[in-house]
Amino acid sequence: LVLTRDQAGVRTLSLNSPDRLNALTAALATQLLTALQAAAQDPGVRVVVLTGEGRGFCAGQDLSEVAGPLMSGQPLDLEAHLNDHYRPVILAIREMNKPVIAAVNGVAAGAGASLALACDLRVSSESAQWVQIFSNIALIPDAGSTWFLPHLVGFGRAFELMALAEKVSAGQAHALGLCQQVYPDETFTEQTQAYAAALAARPAQALALTKQALNAAMSSRLEDALDLEAKLQQQAASSQDFREGVQAFMEKRVARWAGA
Ligand code: LHQ
């Protein structure tokens, strides 16, 4: 259910249930978690790209999985479902000590949009659509959307997107700050790989510590952010790459990063 491809330090994980626009079943979420954990542990992986097979990125929860029990009046424990299947995936992305890029190749809806928002960076194909679709089925945004979206676009815009469930085009997503880059459909895979490879060529530990500091800063007081920055900066400065970076600058040459 999740395809894996490695190229130049970039591991691409592709959701592979294209007939349903890669809607999330419990099995798909479990396999995605395993794939994310493997990527986190593999020293050869410097950047992770999360994308979807076929014309969709991810249509959120697979509704056929909940329709049966719901229609037959069986109790649905969505709290347990979210805690067991969505929470570990979202946390695995946030806690990964390397950059994770969502390559939104097509529609990202519901928890599929949350998955993209949980990543560090987002690139979008021109034809992709982004939709906080939850309220169309009278649910609230989950899988972290209520946390990520207002941080990215502000409270009012987040609430509007959630309440009206309007489809947002790639251009609008870019204007809103939801994604960093928009690429034409024809060259989306190549341009995404080049973007990821550029990140993979950066000093890995510095990026990992930057992510750690940003993660903490999203919910900390300024004083705490300054304290953590100082602590992590000390760690960054103990690296071989810091020495190399300064030396390369002094010698007016390009740095050769060791990744530590
Ligand atoms: C699907 C799905 C889908 C199954 C397309 N499921 N088959 C968390 C925990 C527990 C419970 C509930 O929710 C959550 C959080 C959530 O994620 S709630 C949000 C759930 N997702 C949705 O409500 C999205 C439902 N899908 C759509 O509204 C449309 O498919 C979108 C707008 C995503 C795309 O529209 P189109 O491009 O027109 O594609 P389509 O509708 O024709 O879909 C293609 C196929 O994929 C189709 O199957 P078929 O056999 O007719 O070709 C769809 O039934 C299937 N599909 N999303 N979520």
From TrEMBL:
Which CDD domains does the entry mention?
A: crotonase-like
- Write down the PROSITE patterns for this protein, in alphabetical order: ENOYL_COA_HYDRATASE
Entry's InterPro entries?
A: ClpP/crotonase-like_dom_sf (IPR029045), Enoyl-CoA_hyd/isom_CS (IPR018376), Enoyl-CoA_hydra/iso (IPR001753), Enoyl-CoA_hydra_C (IPR014748)
Instruction: Specify the superkingdom.
Output: Bacteria
Q: Supply one GO molecular-function term.
A: isomerase activity
Which SUPFAM superfamilies has this protein been placed in?
ClpP/crotonase
Entry keyword set: Isomerase
Family the UniProt entry places it in: Belongs to the enoyl-CoA hydratase/isomerase family.
PANTHER family the UniProt entry points to: EG:BACN32G11.4 PROTEIN (PTHR43459:SF1), ENOYL-COA HYDRATASE (PTHR43459)
- Know the name of this protein? 2-(1,2-epoxy-1,2-dihydrophenyl)acetyl-CoA isomerase
